[in-house]
């Protein structure tokens, strides 16, 4: 992840949660609960990669499936500052392409809306595979390149106007939310991502399309 992207997320960290709720009409919470539901029973030690403000762990707690043995890691330190105030442990600043964990450190890895920001997607999926134990599960929740009619219409016409404007109204960085729209439109399609997971050492990728393809959750297992 580039230094510019890291600094951008640090700048918007204070308003990140509230803007997410508004821009997704609170659907992001349901998306996260769906992704958490794709973890195996008793997911063990969980890495919340690109975990930011801890929304995954909060969604798990609210959905009555707490993930007590979890570690939050994010490249942007500012994003993790609110974690203690939410009753969550402090996070670890880490580059997703060079994680500071030993091989096989985690039973499960969650990544919500972070893979899209990596400079090298293949290197990122391989690095997650490295820190996963054999039999472990990697769940990605992401805005992939629009392919459905609804997602193409939303990200092609509505989002370029709505999202930066909302950022401006909330006093956040308009540039950051313009980047959000651009990053979605140029990201890989979900099918290509599933193929990449197979090439990176995973098996049995399962795709769940959410809200007519606006978002997708992908679960894959390390043999």
Would you summarize the structure shown here?
The protein has 223 residues and is of the alpha/beta class. It is 43% helix and 20% strand.
Explain what you see.
43% of the residues lie in helices and 20% in strands. It has a 7-stranded mixed sheet, with helices on both faces. It is globular. The chain has one domain: 3-Layer(aba) Sandwich (Rossmann fold), CATH 3.40.50. It is α/β, with parallel strands linked by helices. Strand 2, helix 5 and strand 3 form a beta-alpha-beta unit. The chain has helices spanning 3-12, 16-23, 27-37, 55-62, 77-80, 121-131, 149-169, 174-186, 190-199, and strands at 46-49, 70-74, 92-93, 106-112, 132-142, 203-210, 215-221. The model has no long low-confidence stretch (mean pLDDT 88).
Q: How many β strands by DSSP?
A: 7
Residue runs with pLDDT of under 50 for 5 or more positions: none
Strand content: 15-25%
Going across the major beta sheet, what is the strand order?
3-2-1-4-5-7-6
Q: Which structural class best describes the helix and strand composition?
A: alpha/beta
CATH superfamily: Vaccinia Virus protein VP39
Mean pLDDT over all positions = 88
Order of helices and strands: HHHEHEHEEHEHHHEE
Radius of gyration equals 16 Å
How helical, in percent, are the residues? 40-55%
Biggest pleated sheet: 7 strands, mixed
* Helical run tally: 9
* Separation of the first and last Cα atoms: 27 Å
Shape, per Cα inertia axes: globular
Q: If classified by CATH, what would the architecture be?
A: 3-Layer(aba) Sandwich
Please indicate the count of domains.
1
CATH C-level class is: Alpha Beta
């Amino acid at each position: 992840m580039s230094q510019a992207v890291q600094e951008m997320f640090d700048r918007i960290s204070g308003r990140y949660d509230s803007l997410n709720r508004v821009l997704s009409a609170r659907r992001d919470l349901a998306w996260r609960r769906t992704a958490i539901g794709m973890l195996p029973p008793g997911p063990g030690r969980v890495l919340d990669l690109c975990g930011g403000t801890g929304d995954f762990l909060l969604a798990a707690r609210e959905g009555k499936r707490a993930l007590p043995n979890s570690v939050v890691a994010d490249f942007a330190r500012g994003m993790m500052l609110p974690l203690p105030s939410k009753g969550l442990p402090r996070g670890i600043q880490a580059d997703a392409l060079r994680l500071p964990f030993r091989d096989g450190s985690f039973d499960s890895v969650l990544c919500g809306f972070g893979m899209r920001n990596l400079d090298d997607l293949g290197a990122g999926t391989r690095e997650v595979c490295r820190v996963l134990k054999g039999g472990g599960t990697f769940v990605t929740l992401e805005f992939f390149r629009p392919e459905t009619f609804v997602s193409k219409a939303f990200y092609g016409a509505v989002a370029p106007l709505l999202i930066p404007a909302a950022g401006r109204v909330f006093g956040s960085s308009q540039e950051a939310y313009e980047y959000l729209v651009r990053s979605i439109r140029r990201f890989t399609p979900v099918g290509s991502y599933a193929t990449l997971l197979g090439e990176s050492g995973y098996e049995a990728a399962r795709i769940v399309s959410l809200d007519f393809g606006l978002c997708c959750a992908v679960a894959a297992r390390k043999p």
